[in-house]
Amino acid sequence: xxxxxxxxxxxxxxxxxxxxxxxxxxxxxxxxxxxxxxxxxxxxxxxxxxxxxxxxxxxxxxxxxxxxxxxxxxxxxxxxxxxxxxxxxxxxxxxxxxxxxxxxxxxxxxxxxxxxxxxx
Length: 120
What we know:
This protein is of the alpha+beta class.
C-alpha cells in the first residue's frame, strides 16, 4: 500500500507540474506574478525552489539536504553542476521524485515533499 501511495504521489506531482506549466490555470493566488517567481528560481550552479505563498527562495548545492518549509504550489529549477539531481522525499523518508539534470523552471506541488537532497 505504501508503494502504491508513493507511486501515486509522484505521478500526481509530475502530472500537476505538467498541467500547471502548460495551462497555469490552477496556480494558487500570489502577490507575485508567475514569471517573477519563475525568474527568481533560475540560479546557475544550484537547485532552487520558490513557493506561491512567498517565503523567499530555497537553494541547494551539491551534497546539501534540507527540510521542505512550504506546502502548496511553486517552482523549482535544477541547474546543479555535473548532471546533478535532487531527490525529493516524503514524510516516511521514501523517495517520491528525482529531478532530471539541468532542468527547469518547472511548476509543481510542494505538499507531498518533506525533504530534499542534492546529489552531484
